[in-house]
Input
Amino acid sequence: MNPARRGIESNHMTASRMSRRDHRRGTARRARSRKATARASKPAAKTVAKPVVKISSKLAPPPQVMFRLCQSGWSVIVEKAPNAQGTRFVCPFCPVSHRVPGPVRGFRKIRRAQWVKLRRVEE
Output
């Protein structure tokens, strides 16, 4: 480094965008006083009671319902989507294809007492 410039520039290099004057000043002291004045001048915010609205998230999967299949103890899991078009699926237990009101998400073996309570698939 040129000896004539040694007094102007500092020896340490920083990656910040602050000038040397800002660096020497107490920035924490200035920020603290700014926060204190902003807090004091702001009026207290009143909490307004909003009506509770049911939020249906697009991220959450739609609820699933089960329908009774032709084989006893077996049910099909169907997504219950609003205004969804009916879906035909091939039954794994008989040669007939059945119709359900939404997309099929799988099959499930359940106890007979629960199976009897389920709605039967169409056709």
Notes: The two ends are 90 Å apart (CA to CA). The longest strand covers residues 74-79. Residues 27-41 form the longest helix (15 residues).
